[in-house]
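Reviewers of the previous submission asked for a worked example of the structure-prediction workflow described in the proposal, so we include one complete record here. The input consisted solely of the amino acid sequence. No template or homolog information was supplied to the procedure at any stage.
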Amino acid sequence: MTASQSSSELCSVPALLARNASQYGARPAYREKEFGIWQSWTWAETSVEIEALALGLLNLGVAPGDHIAIIGRNRPYLYWSMVAAQSVGAVPVPLYQDAVAEEMAYVLDHCGARFVIAADQEQVDKVIEIQDRLETFEHMVYLDPRGLRKYDHSKLHQFSHVQDQGRAARDELMSELDKRRSGLDYDSTCVMLYTSGTTGKPKGVVLSNRNIIETAKNSSEFDSLVAGDEVLAYLPMAWVGDFIFSIGQAYWAGFCVNCPESADTMMTDLREIAPSYYFAPPRVFETQLTSIMIRMEDAGPFKKRLFKRFMDHARKVGPKLLDGESVGAMDRIMYRLGEWTTYGPLKNALGFSKVRVGYTAGEAIGPEIFDFYRSMGINLKQLYGQTEASVFITQQPDGEVRSDTVGVPSPGVELKIAENGEVYYRSPGVFVEYFKNADSTAGTKDAEGWVATGDAGFIEKDTGHLRIIDRAKDVGQMASGALFAPKYVENKLKFYPNILEAVVFGNGRDECTAFLNIDLTAVGNWAERNNIAYASYQELAGHPEVLAQIEGHIAEVNASVAGDEMLSGCQVHRFVVLHKELDADDGELTRTRKVRRRIIEEKFADIITALYDGSPQVSTETEVTYEDGRKGSIKATLEVRSAKTVPVTVSKVAAE
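From that input alone, the workflow returned the following structure tokens.
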């Protein structure tokens, strides 16, 4: 069998595993860094480990159709758990590892999970805390035994012991395992992934083998992914992107999935692996750029001048060289010199020295951030996707990469734009249904398979590229009739290293206003260099010099926004730097770091009122959630500042 084999012949992930164990048996399938040392498993070894676990799950009594929740950070064992669950006809349901027990309770109860596979004591404790509310829960398997020796093991089982019991019962159970694996087909459920719940309770998205394998096949061929590629698996396992990259594409193409030791060592591990295929949401690229800028602030005058000169040159010719366009001989020589002195060392420091294909998605990335990475020769592209699409809706082909579009339809995907500007798609990756939610399924996917994205956009007639304006529900009109698209302005603001998050308001109003979060790392570094003492995030966020810097950034963004005739009315007139970081635990962000705009509007209504009534300051009290789940509150008096705007003649654009 070959990688070019028809996907219909490889109709399940376990079938792909068997193909890889046969064809790529000696190649690395997984690596994990533990105690500072990289450990590796070949495809043949991976197949043996997964089979032992699958037999162990049969021994525990897993039945076809059971839901098995999987909770923890990216580890080979947990990826094996998903494939082992599929092998016995069960449905893996990965959960966000940073979710609090209350959030887990909803998902575990909704999917009716009989079994849970948890990474460590922290995750085990969360499930034990809520197990009395879970009617179907029976057994939990844990990976790391530290701290669990004295727990009641009537429902607890160590991962390695489950595998050992599976191996011991191999002769007895192998025929049943073979029967279940051979019974899997394209219509069998591959995974169930819960949405981030931006506007309400998370929904369970049921994805079939057809959805995952066809999407993995098409997207892998689009970027010529092969068995020799390397990917770093560090994003939440409950996120569809991680599933398609680390299971779907990895098993289709046969490439190696590398798991970092921890979030703290991620950047070091990234440099050591130097992946050829890399994905990160915009926030990761923003954070990395912030780190670069902080380091340059600490550099000497000569290094600063060198960095500025070569980065200015890179912005001029780097993207052209990447796209194979003609560049003058002197510019090439200058760029090569920059590669030796600046770009090469910088890419090595970031872990991007071998990136052949890089993607970002999830939120729109600021054009300046996007262009910065491409100018250094990193083939960073944008894709547009959703959980309901098995990720891929559009991708940017090499040579057609721009910061203002999300590319052309991915192979097998059809697009159309509704009269109200909402984007619809249809593809082999379109989800089967929302679990136990027929009404939402019918409201999202019509009888012909077209899915409403909830995003407003348009397709360029001359290029076929899709441009996303904003979330359809967020796009509106200002009182003047001008188009209101907050994400456009928010992304420009977040380009600045000391701005972590931005939320812009203005729908139906005369002016736009904004909430901002400072980046504590960047601003804290600045404060230390300038001998400015502070005792908390709140104190630093309200410092007059910090507010003055933010005011200057907004003025620059306003000047940029004023140049866009369609969106010039979205300039920010007044702003507040919030006294706390927006947090998923407080319900202000989703677990994938998307802003829950409506919740923020309700929670901080008093501050929004002050932004619009001319108040110079506002006193507020906000409920917060601590790491241990306890609730508390913080009080603050915030300064409301005005920002410099550029007078424009606003075009009235209907936001239908």
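Residues 285 and 571 are 25 Å apart (CA to CA). We consider this example representative of the routine output the project will generate in years two and three.
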